């Protein structure tokens, strides 16, 4: 007789918190590295380091032939999954504080729902549509004030930075639907490695063209090493393990943890201010994400008897 063994709930909870801590730290490290490297070079070095970290793991696990068969799809999707959003967030963090950028990053599931609606005709129900409206209202509220900006930044630069964050979130949404369409059944490690390789190739020439005239300091280089290895390479492995052990719906809840860690890191290590308005807008966005992803649903009123 076969006996089913229930998965250890503590394991996936630990993975969830650790992943939130890693991805929250990515905004801190981008905030440190981007001013010295520039947006495109910082993003290029990040994905290059992640590629060097993941490729030996891929080969050691025997997934090289799989990547060779699907290299076009994985590398192209990597441009949208890593190259474009990493560069856009680095650009935004030249103007925005790390906590504010992380709050805007929480809209990724909403953009994912919109892209899936347009691509796969996955029409959201009333509860999810309400979540989309609430979430984007929270973004509009956040962008309407200058909370979370660097000193001496005008409203014009702030608008471009917010739009860059939203563009990155849209790119993530496109890559999620593209992965669903073209990468089904491919081992996650092959997908992760191929995506970082594709992003590296796409950003290499622009990064060389825009490479800073003065070599960045040790602190900026260490930030990018941490970004590439911990916040990209290890985080991808952890994310895919979380999906396997807890399911995609539970894995998606990491979206709520990332801004919490990012705001904490920014306040402790960078001295960034946390305003009441940022907290209110963050709460509105989180409510919108919870509804738009189906994690929380509005109850329909009971029919009258």
Describe it for me?
The chain has a domain at 9-96 and 154-273. 77% of the residues lie in helices and 0% in strands. The protein is globular. The protein has helices at 9-37, 39-60, 64-69, 71-92, 98-105, 108-120, 126-143, 155-182, 188-209, 218-246, 248-252, 254-269, 276-292. The termini are far apart. The longest helix is centred in the N-terminal third of the chain and has 29 residues, at 9-37. It is mainly alpha-helical and 305 residues long. It contains 13 helices and no strands. The model is unreliable at 1-7 (pLDDT under 50).
Which short descriptors sum up this protein?
77% helix, 305 residues, 0% strand, single chain, 13 helices, mainly alpha
Unreliable residue runs: 1-7
How would a textbook summarize the main sheet? none
The radius of gyration is: 19 Å
Helical proportion, percent range: over 70%
SS summary, helix count? 13
Structural class by helix and strand composition? mainly alpha
Strands, total number: 0
Layout of helices and strands, plus pairs?
Blueprint: H1 9-37, H2 39-60, H3 64-69, H4 71-92, H5 98-105, H6 108-120, H7 126-143, H8 155-182, H9 188-209, H10 218-246, H11 248-252, H12 254-269, H13 276-292
Helix pairs in contact: 1-2, 1-5, 1-10, 1-12, 2-4, 2-9, 2-10, 4-8, 4-9, 5-12, 6-8, 7-13
């Amino acid at each position: 007789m076969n006996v089913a063994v229930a998965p250890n709930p503590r394991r996936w909870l630990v993975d969830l918190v650790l992943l939130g801590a890693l991805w929250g730290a990515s905004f801190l490290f981008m905030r440190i590295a981007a001013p010295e490297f520039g947006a495109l070079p910082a993003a290029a070095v990040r994905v290059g380091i992640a590629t060097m970290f993941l490729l030996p793991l891929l080969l050691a696990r025997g997934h090289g032939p799989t990547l060779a068969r699907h290299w076009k799809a994985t590398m192209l999707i990597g441009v949208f999954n890593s190259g474009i959003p990493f560069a856009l967030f680095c650009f935004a963090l030249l103007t925005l504080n790390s906590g504010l950028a992380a709050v805007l990053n929480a809209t990724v599931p909403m953009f994912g729902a919109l892209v899936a609606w347009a691509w796969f005709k996955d029409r959201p129900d009333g509860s999810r549509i309400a979540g989309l409206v609430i979430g984007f209202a929270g973004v509009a509220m956040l962008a309407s004030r200058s909370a979370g900006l660097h000193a001496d930044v005008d409203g014009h630069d702030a608008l471009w930075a917010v739009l860059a964050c939203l563009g990155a979130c849209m790119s993530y949404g496109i890559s999620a639907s593209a992965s669903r369409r073209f990468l089904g059944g491919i081992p996650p490690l092959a997908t992760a490695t191929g995506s970082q390789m594709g992003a590296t190739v796409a950003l290499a020439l622009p990064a060389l063209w825009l490479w800073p005239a003065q070599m960045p300091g040790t602190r900026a280089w260490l930030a990018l090493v941490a970004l590439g290895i911990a916040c990209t390479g290890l985080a991808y492995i952890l994310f895919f393990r979380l999906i396997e052990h807890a399911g995609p719906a539970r894995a998606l809840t990491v979206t709520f943890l990332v801004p919490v860690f990012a705001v904490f890191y920014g306040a402790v290590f960078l001295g960034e201010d946390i305003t009441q308005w940022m907290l209110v807008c963050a709460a509105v966005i989180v409510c919108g994400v919870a509804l738009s992803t189906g994690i929380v649903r509005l109850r329909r009123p009971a029919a009258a008897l």
